[in-house]
Structure formats: structure tokens, C-alpha cells
Design brief:
CATH class: Alpha Beta
Distance between the termini: 8 Å
Subunit structure: Homodimer.
CATH architecture: 3-Layer(aba) Sandwich
Helix content: 25-40%
Radius of gyration: 16 Å
CATH topology: Rossmann fold
Pfam families: PNP_UDP_1
Order of helices and strands: EHEEEHEEEHEHEHEH
GO molecular function: adenosylhomocysteine nucleosidase activity; methylthioadenosine nucleosidase activity
Catalytic activity: S-adenosyl-L-homocysteine + H2O = S-(5-deoxy-D-ribos-5-yl)-L-homocysteine + adenine; 5'-deoxyadenosine + H2O = 5-deoxy-D-ribose + adenine; S-methyl-5'-thioadenosine + H2O = 5-(methylsulfanyl)-D-ribose + adenine
InterPro entries: MTA_SAH_Nsdase, Nucleoside_phosphorylase_d, Nucleoside_phosphorylase_sf
CATH superfamily: Nucleoside phosphorylase domain
Strand order of the largest sheet: 5-9-8-6-10
Length: 230
């Protein structure tokens, strides 16, 4: 079993990186890739950088270069559901773009032409993630994560997402791009994100204050998920 793990920022990958045994590192196409054993499983951990393009590039590198069997995306997200608190976990049921608009030609808002409107996460990985999170006694919710190349802050962009994507429970800048690549390459994936902010006017200060908490929670969940593949 080969597991690919993507985190956008240093804070999001640093904890797992230092848990990897027999670790080796390479730099490729601007990405930093650490490989070795984590929880007894062969992993390839990549710090992608922020945004859809870099996330898609990193997913493609892991799939084509290392022939990974599954892909997990970790890190932080903005909470859209009123039940969320800082540090809670969101598990992707599916991912979707919130900044793609080809409705002029009959496609749904968020849908890339000739692709599904949403990219479904793997059911088995979702089930494993839920079991791990329950054992860790961390509050979590499963639902749609929407993605765009914008850090959401302020009422106007937040209300736009709530209006056009009412089923979304979290927002980030990478997940849908990763899900899109996994769909194209037929690789099972799941997104495990921890809530760092609530996509409002205080989001920038909250994000930096609570990023480390979010990283700790999502990293802990991933370490436990990996034990299922030993």
C-alpha cells in the first residue's frame, strides 16, 4: 500500500514529516516530497503550495511518479456550518469548485465542462476516517467542501457561497483540484481538514492564530487512518 498525502503549507505537513521513519526528501517542480514509513505504512508526503494549480500538480506527481494507491489531503478549512468550532474536523463526502462558471453553455455553476459537478470521495476512506475520529473523540461532520483560488473573508463572498452552494459545509483553496485529478486518474481520495476560521471578516487573524491547532488535529487523524492499512 502506497499512500499519498498532500498539505499546502509548512504548518500543515510539518507534524507528519517529523513522524516519518527512514525519511528521504526530494524537491520536484517546486514541491517538497518526503517519503518513508508512517504508522508502518509507505507514505509520500508533499507540501504543494497554496491554490488549485499547485494542488493539482502535486496530486499528479504523486500518482504518476510514485503510483500511490490512495490520496489523502490534510490541512485547514473555513467552516460554513453553524455547528463547527475551531479544531473540528470536516470529512469530504465530495468536493466542488465554487469559482468555475460555464453556465453560459449549459453547465452547472462549479462544473468544469465534461466533468461531474462534484467529485465524490471514496466511501471506504470516509468510513475509516469517521471511525478514527470517533475514537479520538473529536467532533466531525461529513459533507461537501468547495474550493476556489480566493481566501474567503467578509460577508459578500461568504453569502455568495452560501447562496449558490447551500450544501457546502467548508471552503478551502485546494480540495476540488485534488479530487478532480483523482477522478481523472481513478485514484481513491478523501479530504481531512480541520476548521481554522469561519470565512468572515475576522478570518485572516483567526486563520493564523488557529492554523497550528488545525494542523495538529488533521495530522492526528491521518496517523490513525494509516493504521488501517498495515
Amino acid at each position: 500500500m502506497k499512500v499519498g498525502i498532500i498539505g499546502a503549507m509548512e504548518e500543515e505537513v510539518n507534524i507528519l514529516r517529523h513522524q516519518i521513519k527512514k525519511r528521504s526528501k526530494i524537491y520536484l517542480s517546486g514541491a517538497e516530497i518526503d517519503s518513508g514509513l508512517l504508522s508502518g505504512v509507505e507514505v509520500f508526503l508533499i507540501k504543494s503550495g497554496i491554490g488549485k494549480v499547485l494542488a493539482a500538480l502535486s496530486a499528479t506527481l504523486l500518482i504518476n511518479l510514485y503510483k500511490i494507491n490512495i490520496l489523502i489531503n490534510i490541512g485547514s478549512a473555513g467552516g460554513l456550518h453553524p455547528k463547527f468550532k475551531i479544531g473540528d474536523i470536516v470529512i469530504s463526502s465530495a468536493v466542488q469548485y465554487h469559482d468555475v462558471d460555464v453556465t453560459t453553455y449549459g453547465f452547472q455553476l462549479g462544473q468544469v465542462p465534461n466533468c461531474p459537478c462534484v467529485f465524490q470521495a471514496d466511501h471506504n476512506l470516509i468510513t475509516i476516517a469517521k471511525c478514527c475520529i470517533q475514537k479520538l473523540n473529536i467532533f466531525s461532520m461529513r459533507g461537501i467542501i468547495v474550493t476556489g483560488d480566493t481566501f474567503i473573508q467578509g460577508n459578500e463572498p461568504l453569502q455568495r457561497i452560501r447562496y449558490y452552494f447551500p450544501e457546502a459545509i467548508a471552503v478551502d483553496m485546494e480540495s476540488a483540484a485534488i479530487g478532480h485529478v483523482c477522478y481523472q486518474c481513478n485514484v481513491p481520495f478523501v479530504i481531512i481538514r480541520s476548521i481554522s476560521d469561519f470565512s468572515n471578516r475576522s478570518s485572516p487573524s483567526n486563520f493564523h492564530s488557529f492554523l497550528n491547532i488545525a494542523a495538529q488535529k488533521s495530522s492526528l487523524v491521518v496517523e490513525n487512518i494509516l493504521t488501517y492499512f498495515i
